[in-house]
Amino acid sequence: MSGKEPVKEFFSIGEVCALTDLKPHVLRYWESQFRFLNPAKNRSGNRAYQRREIELIMHVKHLLYTEKYTIDGARQKVDDQRRAGELKAATRSALGVETIASVERELQCILNLLDSGR
């Protein structure tokens, strides 16, 4: 055995919230506003998100919170990107930007903790 853990294919809404720093009610609302955010449900009726959907959630988050699009504007932007064949590249780019912003926030918190200990 190689000792590597298998790649996780499905994520619960709680896991997605932790990964995206969003609240469950926000994700559920976005599902009603963006037809491409439609996670499968398991036998218990719980949402089961795939990686692709998490990437799309991060893209929507970037459009809404960083680029300051409205819901309608973000929906239109994603539709335009999908038609132009640019959605995957735009999603990956937004994921990178959001990851960097998250790391910067965490580093700032660490710096603040270090400064408060002096």
What features would you describe in this structure?
By secondary structure, this protein is mainly alpha-helical. The chain has helices at 13-20, 24-33, 51-66, 71-84, 87-116, and strands at 40-41, 47-48. The protein has one domain (13-116): Multidrug-efflux Transporter Regulator, Chain: A, Domain 2. The chain is built from 5 helices and 2 strands; from the N terminus they run H-H-E-E-H-H-H. Strands 1-2 form a two-stranded antiparallel ribbon. The longest helix is centred in the last third of the chain and has 30 residues, at 87-116. It starts with 12 loop residues before the first helix and ends with a helix. The mean pLDDT is 88.
The residue ranges in which pLDDT falls below 50 over 5 or more consecutive positions are none
Q: Write down the domain tally.
A: 1
Structural class call reads: mainly alpha
**Radius of gyration in whole Å, from Cα?**
17 Å
Order of strands in the sheet with most strands: 1-2
Shape: globular
Provide the CATH top-level class. Mainly Alpha
- Summed over residues and divided by their number, the pLDDT gives a mean of 88
Strand content: under 5%
CATH topology name: Multidrug-efflux Transporter Regulator, Chain: A, Domain 2
Give the name of the CATH architecture: Orthogonal Bundle
Please give the number of β-strands: 2
The H/E string reads HHEEHHH
